[in-house]
């Protein structure tokens, strides 16, 4: 019995595989055109999701990273903005990490900002705050914005992020500017979330960071107060409500 002829679907799947793996193709071929377009789309996508990282590295380095990332992380949807989640891990395992260890953390910071900016804002259910006076702390849990992400680093990520975002197009910060930021004393603890007006970044202290980690893990208010007895809950709640981190209590 003769081998079954490939179907149109088989051919399309093979073509897509060839394109998405950047396999070599003859110069000037139709496949090479598709590959080039895909590569440029990947580079643009990373530059949009990670603008500060792209400014730090330059176009050639972003091109190389895009090719490497594509081998381990394929687009999971029809939207390229969903692609890039594993770039921080890729940077940590790259030859850049030893000399520039802060790049992976910058990538994680920018990915959190990028995802928060694309997330839905959830309004506060103010009536649920009544449980603070009506229920025992051990029965209360704090609900946070779905977009809220915690990032920590040994480097002043917020300062580096702000410095690069403040530069005119095509201009990189000077060495003196970079050194000044690297010498600043940031806590290295950040909250990134979506609010009604914008995507915001807040620098917090280590105890506030640990408290928020506990909230995200589902700890009750009673447990949090026991674990972090020196944290001023009333003050924290005021800050959290002002920054629209909290969506309610349950």
From TrEMBL:
<feature type="domain" description="Putative DNA-binding">
    <location>
        <begin position="11"/>
        <end position="91"/>
    </location>
</feature>
<dbReference type="InterPro" id="IPR044922">
    <property type="entry name" value="DUF2063_N_sf"/>
</dbReference>
<keyword id="KW-0238">DNA-binding</keyword>
<dbReference type="GO" id="GO:0003677">
    <property type="term" value="F:DNA binding"/>
</dbReference>
<dbReference type="Pfam" id="PF09836">
    <property type="entry name" value="DUF2063"/>
</dbReference>
<dbReference type="InterPro" id="IPR018640">
    <property type="entry name" value="DUF2063"/>
</dbReference>
<protein>
    <submittedName>
        <fullName>DNA-binding domain-containing protein</fullName>
    </submittedName>
</protein>
């Amino acid at each position: 019995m003769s081998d079954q002829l490939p179907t149109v679907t088989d051919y399309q799947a093979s073509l897509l595989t060839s394109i998405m793996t950047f396999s070599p193709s003859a110069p000037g071929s139709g496949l090479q055109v598709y590959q080039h377009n895909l590569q440029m789309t990947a580079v643009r996508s990373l530059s949009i999701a990670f603008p500060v990282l792209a400014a730090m590295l330059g176009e050639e380095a972003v091109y190389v990273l895009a090719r490497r990332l594509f081998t381990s992380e394929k687009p999971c949807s029809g939207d390229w903005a969903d692609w890039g989640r594993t770039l921080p891990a890729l940077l940590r395992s790259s030859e850049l990490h030893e000399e520039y260890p802060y790049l992976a953390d910058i990538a994680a910071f920018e990915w959190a900002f990028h995802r928060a900016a694309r997330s839905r804002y959830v309004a506060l259910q103010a009536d649920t705050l009544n449980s603070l006076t009506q229920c025992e702390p051990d029965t209360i849990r704090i609900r946070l914005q779905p977009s809220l992400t915690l990032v920590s680093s040994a480097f002043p990520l917020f300062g580096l992020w702000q410095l690069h975002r403040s530069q005119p197009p095509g201009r990189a910060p000077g060495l003196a500017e970079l050194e000044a930021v690297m010498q600043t004393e940031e806590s290295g603890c950040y909250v990134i979330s979506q609010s009604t007006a914008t995507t915001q970044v807040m620098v917090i202290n280590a105890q506030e960071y640990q408290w928020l980690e506990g909230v995200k893990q589902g700890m009750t208010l009673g447990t949090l107060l026991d674990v972090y007895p020196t944290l001023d809950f009333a003050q924290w709640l005021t800050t959290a409500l002002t920054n629209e981190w909290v969506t309610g209590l349950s």
